[in-house]
Amino acid sequence: MRWTFLIALAACLLLVGHSVSAGSIYTWTDADGVKHYSNEQPPEGIEEVQTIEEVQGDPTSAEQNQQEYDRMVEEASEGADRHFDERAQEKARQEEERQQQQDEEKERRIAEQRARLEKEIEAVRNRGLSPTFTKGMQDNLIRQLQEQIDQLE
Fold first, then answer.
1. What is the pLDDT of residues 38-72, one digit of tens each?
2. Measured between alpha carbons, how far apart are the two ends of the chain, in Å?
3. How far apart are CA 146 and CA 36, in angstroms?
């Protein structure tokens, strides 16, 4: 569906020129909402078909047909613009969601790390003091762990 607007626009531009050729132009919208322009009959099952007939030799009719062709080209172009705008908005929305998920994952990892460090601090506080583990060593270890917590923020 991405390229259908471009294909429809290209087909319309091929059909339209400064000199209008004889024949009919058919326009219809398919089940996916894509507008089609063709000089061939639409496929079976299409209910709403607009037909533009050209009468050879009638300058008024040719001018009207040219105006109708120009309108169709403009409509196809606007449809393509809308399509690409919608795609750009969808990509921006997806990027925003991806960034939000990354931020949430980062916050989750920080919270896990903080909880682990706080648990270590609690274990150090509860550790018994001895000649090989003094109050100064305990305070220093707690300070180091607290600095790690502070760096997380």
1. 778 888 888 788 777 655 556 667 777 778 888 88
2. 46
3. 67
Q: Please check the confidence at residue 20 and state whether its pLDDT lies above 50.
A: no
Beta bridge partners of 49: 28
**Residue 98: both structure tokens together:** 């991806």
Question: Where exactly are the structural domains of the chain?
Answer: 4-99, 109-152
Residue with tokens 């682990």: 116
Pairing of strands 24-29, 35-38: antiparallel
Nearest to 39 by CA among 3, 65, 18: 65
Q: What distance in Å separates the CA atoms of residue 47 and residue 70, rounded to the nearest whole number?
A: 24
Q: Which residue has the higher pLDDT, 132 or 78?
A: 132
Cα separation of 117 and 148, whole Å? 8
Residue with tokens 């105006």: 67
- Among 83, 106, 85, 103, residue whose Cα is nearest residue 95: 103
Report the DSSP beta bridge partners of residue 28. 36, 49
How does pLDDT run across 107-144, given as a tens digit for each residue?
Answer: 999 999 999 999 999 999 999 999 999 999 999 999 99
- Asked if 35 and 8 touch (Cβ cutoff 8 Å), the reply is yes
